[in-house]
Amino acid sequence: MLDGKKVLFSGMQATGNLTLGNYLGALKNWVNIADDYETFYSVVDMHSITIRQDPAELRKRARTLLTLYIAAGLDPERNCIYYQSHVSGHAELAWILNCFTYMGELNRMTQFKDKAAKHADNINAGLFTYPVLMAADILLYQADVVPVGIDQMQHLEITRDIAQRFNAIYGDVFTVPEIYLGKVGAKVMSLQDPSKKMSKSDENPNGSIYLMDDPDTVIRKFKRAVTDSEACVRYCDEQPGIRNLIDIYCASTGKTPAETEKEFEGKGYGDFKMAVGEAVVGVLKPLQDRFADLQKNKDYLDGIIKKNAEKAQYVSNKTLRKVQKKIGFPERVR
Ligand code: TYM
After folding, report:
1. What single string gives the DSSP state of each residue in 99-112?
2. Is 61 touching ligand 1 by the criterion CB < 6 Å?
3. Candidates 5, 28, 183, 197; catalytic one
4. What is the pLDDT of residues 242-269, one digit of tens each?
């Protein structure tokens, strides 16, 4: 609890171009539930360097991402939007939690296995302990709830395990967080291969809709989207391509799968794909326009970045000091 409200924490990596999956699976939910919580939304640039990054590019992407949080509808006066690297407690707590996390647990993380296979020439220790930094992010703010997509579920589970293990030794130090999954869009799949999640790092750009794609590109990608052989718009396991498009349509319009099936009864895939494309353009266009406006306002953004980093540092310090005391680090001399 902070100021009488439950606490929400979430973050995104400043790596690659944000996709519709990031938006529907996470960002959109962040905006929808923000008012009910005391919120911390971090641009997790420290996680990004587990994969080699070009410094200028990383800086640019981090700023773009922070601006996108605001463009998506998060008011930075009421939501603490900040860069992870500006708050020293993330790294400090991560070190401590490393000493309460087992190699065997980290070895089981599927994201580590996937990324290690993809970047075989750079399997660094940071990539391995990535989930511990994530646990530190969440536990530092005593978060009650963490809205993410399904792919982050395993990381949330290990965060809970670490918190419970620590609490069992030292008393109730950490709030044990709950995962928040949106009703729709928690796992948006590739438009080219519906068995794979839509991802920033997909080699095939036609599989992902990027938040900055212009309307023509969005429509073109949906027209090319892989569909199935039943030639009707039906929400079922046998039609993974169509099911994914229905999910995207529902997440973009607020309609249900049943309403969508009814709307497109007797119509072919072509009409449906066009409608999904248009619905997505309807979501992305206003976001892109707000982004363009915000980007022009450098001083405003700089002010937000400074103020929110100070707030995050202040709040996180309270947890960090408590943890340091519990584990027996010497008291500071004032
Ligand atoms: P990241 O940057 O990969 O993704 C950001 C958010 O987008 C969601 N997401 C998706 N949701 C639905 N369908 C998809 N195809 C899809 N792709 C991505 C992710 O689930 C996530 O919610 N490790 C995290 C970042 C992180 C974090 C944290 C999150 C670091 N510390 C603390 C929550 C709390 C990550 O790499 O997300």
Report:
1. TTS-HHHHHT-HHH
2. no
3. 197
4. 999 999 999 999 999 999 999 999 999 9
